Amino acid sequence: MGLFKGKEAEKGAVCVPAMAGSDSSISSRSSDTSSDDDKDAENRGTWNGRMDFLLSCIGFAVGLGNIWRFPYLCYKSGGGAFLVPYVIFLILCGMPLFFMEISYGQFASLSPITVWRMSPLFKGVGYGMVIISGIVCVYYNIIITWTFYYLFMSMRKVLPWSDCDNSWNDERCVINKFADTGNVTLANSTSINGTTLNATVVAAVAANGTTLNSSHLMTASEQFWERNVLEITDGIEDLGSIRWPLFGCLVLAWVVVFLCLCKGVKSSGRVVYVTATFPYMVLVILLIRGVTLPGAMEGIKFYLIPDWQKLLEFKVWGDAAIQIFYSVGMAWGGLITMASYNKFHNNVYRDAIIVPLMNCGTSVFAGLVIFSVLGFMAHETGAEIKDVVTQGPGLTFVVYPEAVAKLPISPLWAVLFFLMLFTIGLDSQFGMFETMTSAFIDEFPHLLKNKKVAFTAFMCFVEFVLGIPCVFQGGIYVLQIMDWYCATFSLMLLSLTECLVIAWVYGVNRFYKDIELMIGFQPSNYWKMLWCFITPATILFIWAFSVSQLEPVTYGSYQYPTWAIVFGWGLGLCSLLPIPIVMVISICREEGTLWERVKKLSQPADNWGPALPEHREAYLATLDGPRRRLPLTMRDDSPIYSPKKSACGGASACVLIPEERNLLSDSVATMTTMSDRSVIGQSTEFTSMLADGHKPPVTTC
């Protein structure tokens, strides 16, 4: 087998074969390529500044769950006492996983799929992360769609959910379900999201004067949600017709996402200065207004006063663990993606402390805002606070709007509230959507590298089409299935696999060296102990608790049919199936015994490491054994090495500047000792010339 094939090479070029098993064919370099290390990775880019990354991470981590789930959990689980298990799990699980993900994402400058060059056998984990983000992107934009609808409907002198005089209201509508109507009591009235309310009325007079049983009563805000926004059907068996106003809002939502992300981090990095800070301004304004309302302090006391006996309940600890796991954003792929656009020497250690603490603080602060207004609502309606508290969409689209409607200048507060929800949702959507696009562009650079805008538009269209069933009249039943199954058990198992692979397969000591290379020092051994033992055990605890709480999907009192539950489990498994599938395919493609294949695929690929050459050389210097060399196959996405066609039978030419020749000669010398790559062995004279620093002659292929 000849070393070179084809016609005469370009003058001053040397044809070098690619190493077996690499991800790319042959890498090359033009002699006039700039070596400016701070220059953006070609066609990929970096953040404009450190604050871009920090705000993007905060925006990604701080999601709707901080507004509609944490305050409810805190009240239900002992008030201020709930913060004890919450902070403990933040330290044991949240921060370690956050630190781990942004560290290896920044180190390799690669997104969730391609970053698994660190251990190709487990590349399916990356595919799983992308699948989860893709599914959640579909229904997360539906929530943004609802927010848009409420925002537009808030721009009126009178909020449409503040009275019962609208076309969608019926005889069951009441302005105040908790109003005192004499010596009767309300029992077991079910709210929009299935929360059982114990109120003070059994029967009330409806809007048209008809006496109704309390179980049939609906507030004006409930009827606006069910009969105007959703026009909800009886179940998933009947999706009904499309809701055209929601369809239009869905189109608008995806147009906004496209405009913000069409140029990648260069565009989103500017947008987050508004979307990540605006929610905090609104929360401060709403809190200032909230604490001045009658009954507000009672609501805040109800939220914060600790009930230490609750800490003896296993469920309280389980709820705290689950809330931390989902709120910080581990295993979605978003943290890896955003960190991959960092400068190599960005201090990830500092960021891993700041962002989780900001996320935790935001949750607590949002609870003050929510409960100050709920306290006011309880005061106005004569109900107890526990009777008006709920979580999920029932809080943000029913209870809180109802409370806002009772405020002076209510449209102003409604607009601010829904603008806040919109920006919070948009930030989380940025991270998930960029995870998908960056993952595919990094995995298929030759096809997509220079088509960022077109590919972003294509993915927006695909996600939009997939979301259309959710804007049908029965669409909320579809959304509930996706939310219930797609990001629960699979997310935990992906996170557990990720943690174990980095700590035990890639090696925690090697990972520490990588971090030291970036930030200039090794973190405390405390992190090693967490990554190797405590954090995996914590994830197993969360998983076991989730299994113990397993129930079939429901929406309020509606029970889903068996086929819908099976469909939901199928969605959940979609993100786990790539792990064994990619393992089997990778093993089948390798040569050798089964153990040899597994061992080779568990080790970092030849093109694993930092993107920029000087960082790559520093990384290679930290390695021991045969891998302590510069691989002949350089990364395709390196800004220094870019393919250039030669006359070598269509292969790529590798044009070297003098300072690289010694490194390449070491690589060639190393390769000559390897029998399976002995094709280079006959090039002794060529190697000698490179070692002496001479420019090789033009080679005739």
Automatic annotation (TrEMBL):
Matches recorded under Pfam families: SNF
Keyword tags: Disulfide bond, Glycoprotein, Membrane, Metal-binding, Sodium, Symport, Transmembrane, Transmembrane helix, Transport
Subcellular location: Membrane
Residue ranges of the TM segments: 53-71, 83-104, 125-152, 244-262, 271-291, 320-341, 353-378, 412-433, 453-476, 482-506, 526-546, 566-588
A Gene Ontology BP annotation from the UniProt entry: amino acid import across plasma membrane
Ranges of Low complexity composition bias in the record: 22-33
GO molecular function list: amino acid:sodium symporter activity; metal ion binding
Keyword check for Ribosomal protein: no
InterPro entries cross-referenced by the UniProt entry: Na/ntran_symport, SNS_sf
Protein family according to the UniProt entry: Belongs to the sodium:neurotransmitter symporter (SNF) (TC 2.A.22) family.
Protein name, UniProt field: Transporter
Protein's organism: Littorina saxatilis
